[in-house]
Amino acid sequence: MWVLTTERANLRIRIRFAIRYLLAVSETFVVVDNQIKYTAFSDGKKS
Fold first, then answer.
1. 1 domain-assigned
2. Which keywords appear in this protein's UniProt record, sorted alphabetically (predicted)?
3. Range of the domain at 32
4. Is residue 40 part of a domain?
5. For the chain, how long is the longest CA-to-CA vector?
6. Which DSSP symbol is given to 33?
């Protein structure tokens, strides 16, 4: 997790399986009124 500011962070998870497949998930979220609000999601696929 990268904390960009006290109100914004980016979470990136990468899992590699034994059969060589990789699952990568990246989410960006912000904190508004002490609640997490998601702003972006990526499953690692290029569009």
1. no
2. Plasmid
3. 7-46
4. yes
5. 43
6. T
- Long-range contacts of range 31-37, CB-CB < 8 Å, 24 or more positions apart? 31/6, 31/7, 32/7
In this prediction, residue 3 carries a pLDDT of 64
Task: Report the chain (47 residues): mean pLDDT per 10 consecutive residues.
Answer: 70 82 80 77 56
- Separation CA 38–CA 24 (nearest Å): 17
Gap between the Cα atoms of 40 and 4, Å rounded: 14
Angle at 39 between CA 15 and CA 10, to 5 degrees: 45
Say if CB 10 and CB 1 are below 8 A apart.
yes
Tell me, what's the pLDDT at 32?
82
Structure tokens at 36: 């997490």
